[in-house]
Design a protein that fits this description.
Distance between the termini: 35 Å
Number of strands: 0
Structural class: mainly alpha
Order of helices and strands: HHHHHHHHHHHH
Largest sheet: none
Helix content: 55-70%
Number of domains: 1
Shape: globular
Strand content: under 5%
């Protein structure tokens, strides 16, 4: 509950882009969006937001605009003209009463529920830390723009070359910290949410990420019903993307184990290195990929068998 409150009160009007506090569904397949939203909607902690999301779900129909960051995906909010700043308080599908997450579910007999709750708390705390890096970086964008304008207006001695700006270094520092947290988020999702919920043996981190994902798939795919399989396939697709060349895994591994990738404005190659703007865009995209995958996992759990259903069928 504390982390849920912090997500709302601490970050609201704190300089973050509203889209960073919304559920983008960019990485949720169109066929899974309504199903996922319907499953988590009863757990939305704010009663007003819960009612509004219910209306949005009822009025959505089958037509979805192409999702894009910074714009609500829900037709209902477009029609009402609700601005993005308010919208982040409404279509954030992760502002949930997590204590009720497992209520009524037939949790697998093999589940390590204690570890699962610890993993859930840790995942949410890590998500808060990612948003905090974006918050700390936000005022630096304005300062970098101001510095650039002032520099362009001042006469410059041709013998003097600007090598680096400390504001650029600060901004890069926060974006790379976010990247490290994002990669950690995937480990937490796999090892401390999926593994304990299904009571699986811990999968060694010494094997590659694609092999770890494959082992998870082999271990749980046969336990899933058709709806759960659709959510799971979506998660697998997102998990696979982070290990593509130049993806989240590469950026994190270079930072921790090799020569770190730097932006062209700091210490990177002036021709081939990404710009700070590209680094920021990369971090934001990966933030939404992880958040959407977490939503899919919650939906997977909630679409599982319920204890009441098993009593009725006599199983």
């Amino acid at each position: 509950m504390i982390l849920n409150i912090a997500r709302v009160s601490y970050f609201t009007n704190a300089g973050l882009s509203p889209s960073q506090l919304s559920t983008s569904m960019v990485f949720v397949k169109e066929s899974n969006r309504l199903a996922a939203a319907k499953l988590v909607q009863p757990l939305i902690s704010n009663e007003n937001n819960r009612r509004l999301m219910s209306r949005a779900i009822d009025e959505q129909g089958e037509q979805w605009e192409q999702p894009e960051l910074g714009k609500s995906i829900w037709n209902y909010f477009h029609r009402l003209g609700i601005p993005a700043l308010k919208n982040q308080q409404i279509d954030d599908l992760l502002q949930l009463d997590y204590l009720r997450l497992l209520d009524g579910l037939d949790v697998p007999n093999t589940a390590d529920v204690t570890l699962f709750w610890g993993g859930l708390t840790d995942f949410l705390a890590n998500s808060w830390s990612i948003l905090e890096e974006f918050r700390l970086a936000s005022p630096l964008v304005t300062k970098m723009e101001t510095d650039a304008n002032e520099s362009s207006q001042q006469p410059r001695d041709p013998r003097v070359t600007r090598l680096i700006g400390w504001t650029d270094m600060q901004f890069e520092h926060h974006m790379l910290n976010a990247v490290l947290r994002l990669r950690a988020g995937w480990d937490k999702l796999a090892d401390y949410l999926i593994v304990p919920y299904y009571g699986l043996q811990t999968i060694s981190k010494k094997i590659s990420w694609p092999k770890r994902v494959d082992r998870l798939n082999q271990a749980i795919s046969d336990q899933l019903n058709p709806q759960q399989k659709r959510f799971w396939e979506n998660i697998l697709e997102n998990a696979t993307m982070i290990s593509k060349k130049g993806g989240l895994r590469d950026v994190r591994d270079f930072e921790l184990h090799k020569i770190a990738l730097r932006s062209r404005e700091t210490l990177g190659d002036k021709q081939s290195a990404p710009s700070l703007k590209q680094l920021e865009s990369f971090a934001v995209i990966e933030h939404h990929r992880l958040q959407d995958s977490f939503l899919l996992f919650l939906s997977l759990i909630l679409s599982g068998p319920r204890a009441s259903e098993l009593l009725v069928t006599g199983q």
